[in-house]
Inverse folding.
């Protein structure tokens, strides 16, 4: 079964021959390699590019281990692109394998960047690379590639991509999507046991090993415990000191064995650099500042989150919030967690300060939104509580209340858009 990823393919096609290195980042097994080596390559061939002019090399494969040496990779590519009369496409997969641990610790750009920059000096070579670590690529693209890096992040399947491939109706597919997530190969398995086994093995056989080997971790068990804690507190406001306390409680650590806050912060950074989690900062809507140490960490895929917890602790409201967050990131929005304080008079006549939360403060160019995730709003009092924070902010952001089950989208008398989750995920309500 081929799952079309047309939005990414269209972006890649538009980036052809733009004089930059196309850097495709994202979580391992999220579809980067298939996008580059299958969908993009087949599109090039259908547009008339000769097969011999497309050079494909996967550096995570054992047969290509020699090319993890930048010198040998450079020699190989120069030999294969020696004919200056032809136009070549160079496709390199998982290039982080060509960056040593020593180079990772160094302030100097890895030698690999020099090899790729050198290819661009030839006007007949167009370069595309994938990588699964943002520290190696994403955050260093502009500096390491000297302003000639063009990043495209690939996410697990969106619901819009998942639905037609699932072969199910909208509501049944959405239930599956929230439970099993959008890792493409999940759709190849039929039973819960098969899906759970595949997702669990991604952690044990790929993600943890990648991080432990890359950063020479001495406390791999701490990384696993932290992952479990982050999966269990998804959607909740946290700080790293509390995370450290929780991890130590889970581990029943004695004083001499306690994990310090800085280690937790560092390990959480590794998980985020590997695209397993993403951080939404807490933003003071009245003061226009970020809270220094408070944030939410969302798993990049709900299926991975659920598998890590053995499909226990399934809380639909939190899964729904996670799905919405990932949807917003997939669509290129900047996402914060909104907080606003208001004085409330109590029954004894005294005033107290109360913090209200807006789940998502969303920005992209001219589009700005406040968005609340409410699993159910059947109860009028529940509905009133959900929309109340909208009434105490005073600006022109559009306001959206998302509930789990389908309803015909409508605007209420206060201009708030009420919409079901599936309609949000499948529609274009955030671009109009």
């Amino acid at each position: 079964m081929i799952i079309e990823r047309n939005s990414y393919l269209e972006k890649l096609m538009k980036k052809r021959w733009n004089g930059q290195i196309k850097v495709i980042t994202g979580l391992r097994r999220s579809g980067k390699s298939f996008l580059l080596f299958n969908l993009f390559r087949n599109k090039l061939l259908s547009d008339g590019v000769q097969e011999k002019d497309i050079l494909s090399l996967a550096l995570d494969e054992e047969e290509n281990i020699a090319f993890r040496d930048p010198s040998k990779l450079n020699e190989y590519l120069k030999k294969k692109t020696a004919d200056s009369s032809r136009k070549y496409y160079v496709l390199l997969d998982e290039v982080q394998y060509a960056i040593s641990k020593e180079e990772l610790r160094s302030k100097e750009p890895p030698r690999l960047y020099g090899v790729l920059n050198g290819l661009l000096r030839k006007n007949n070579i167009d370069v595309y690379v994938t990588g699964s670590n943002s520290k190696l690529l994403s955050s260093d693209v502009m500096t390491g590639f000297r302003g000639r890096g063009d990043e495209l992040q690939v996410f697990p399947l969106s619901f819009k991509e998942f639905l037609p491939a699932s072969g199910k109706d909208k509501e049944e597919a959405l239930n599956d999507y929230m439970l099993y997530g959008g890792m493409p190969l999940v759709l190849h398995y039929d039973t819960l046991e098969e899906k759970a086994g595949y997702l669990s093995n991604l952690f044990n056989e790929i993600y943890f090993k990648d991080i432990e080997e890359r950063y020479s971790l001495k406390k791999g068990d701490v990384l696993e415990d932290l992952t479990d804690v982050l999966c269990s507190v998804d959607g909740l406001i946290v700080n790293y000191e509390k995370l450290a306390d929780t991890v130590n409680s889970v581990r029943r650590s004695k004083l001499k064995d306690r994990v310090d806050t800085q280690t937790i912060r560092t390990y959480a950074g590794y998980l985020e650099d590997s695209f397993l989690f993403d951080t939404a900062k807490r933003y003071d809507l009245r003061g226009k500042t970020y809270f220094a140490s408070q944030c939410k960490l969302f798993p990049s895929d709900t299926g991975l989150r659920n598998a890590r917890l053995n499909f226990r602790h399934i809380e639909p409201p939190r899964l729904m919030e996670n799905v919405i967050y990932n949807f917003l990131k997939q669509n290129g929005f900047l996402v914060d967690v909104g907080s606003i304080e208001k004085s409330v008079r109590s029954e004894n006549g005294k005033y107290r300060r109360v913090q209200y939360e807006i789940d998502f403060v969303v920005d992209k160019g001219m589009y700005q939104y406040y968005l609340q995730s409410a699993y159910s709003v059947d109860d009028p009092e529940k509905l009133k509580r959900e929309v109340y924070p909208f009434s105490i902010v005073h600006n022109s952001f559009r306001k959206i209340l998302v509930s789990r089950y389908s309803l015909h989208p409508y605007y209420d008398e206060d201009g708030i858009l009420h919409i079901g989750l599936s309609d949000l995920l499948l529609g274009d309500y955030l671009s109009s």
About this structure: The mean pLDDT is 91. The radius of gyration is 23 Å.
